[in-house]
Amino acid sequence: MTSLVGKRILVTGAGSGIGRAAVRMFRDRGAELVLVGRQLAALQESLPDAEHVVLDHTVDAAVAAFAGACGALDGMFLAAGALKTGSVEGTSTPDFDTVLAANLKGTWLMAHHLGPRLREGASVVLVGSNIGLRAIPESAAYSVAKAGIHMLAKVLALEWAPRRIRCNAIAPGPVHTPMVEARLTASADPMGDLAKLSGVNPLKRLGTSQEVAALAAHLLSDESAWTTGAVITIDGGADASY
User: Fold this and answer.
1) Which band of pLDDT confidence, cut at 50, 70 and 90, is reported for residue 194?
2) 56 Cβ contact list (under 8 Å, min separation 6)
3) Active site residue 242
4) In 10 A of CB 71, how many CB atoms?
5) 118-127 and 32-37 as β-strands: parallel, antiparallel, unpaired?
6) What is the DSSP letter of 66?
7) Does residue 52 sit in helix, strand or coil?
């Protein structure tokens, strides 16, 4: 099992979904956790005995203030994000701004302000999406934002290399998280949409938060010391099919 013993790791989006699964797995593998999210109660539910930071990661001044008081870090798993569906023509400018802020700007700000807090040899994992690698209908803003995340990981890998800090992105396919559940609930045909989401990959099922967290744990560990600047799909083989 991948060891994270002795590593202080910050996780955004830690109050639900992939972030919640990650902090619990990282704790079980020995890490000291800093949980970041917008709702204290959700963070406490994820992991009661950790450091909890209530923060809107899309607000520059708030992230800067937090970074000024944050101790040294051995890793970050930047998993916070939000989904709004719609085409380019059908997405309002406010919705576009919201999606870019939640998925790209917030991650940029965390890297910008907390980069100096990373110890030499640290590792950072960003959460992208497999639809940041290939276009699908009705996910325009989200796809554009996640494509930006993939490039950000590559840029940071180069910028941080002199300090031996690695950065990678993971690109999940549909994972059964509260965000996907909300999308299904809002659908006119929830069961039909679930079947469509499950059917886009050769394994014919949604992924789990634990499976994504396990990949992140590997990338945050010393086992992946020669892996940086990569965008790694975890989507049941969907990327191989298109």
Assistant:
1) confident
2) 38, 62
3) no
4) 10
5) unpaired
6) H
7) strand
**167's tokens:** 């950065």
Beta bridge partners of 32: 8
Amino acid 156 reads L
Write the pLDDT tens digit of every residue in 113-160: 999 999 999 999 999 999 999 999 999 999 999 999 999 999 999 999
Residue in this structure with the two tokens 């109660």, named with its chain if needed: 41
Percent of the chain with pLDDT strictly greater than 70: 100
Confidence (pTM): 0.95
The full DSSP string for 116-164 is: GGEEEEEEEEEE--GGGTS--TTBHHHHHHHHHHHHHHHHHHHHHGGGT
Instruction: Name the nearest CA neighbour of 75 among 25, 37, 117.
Output: 117
Catalytic residue among 26, 77, 96, 142: 142
Phi, psi of 201 (to 5 degrees): -120, 155
pLDDT at 183 over 80: no
> Domains of the chain (ranges plus CATH)?
8-172+207-231 (3.40.50.720)
Residue 115 carries which DSSP code?
G
Q: Report the pLDDT averaged over residues 89-103.
A: 98
Residue 136 sits at the vertex; the CA angle it makes with 235 and 96, to the nearest 5 degrees, is 105
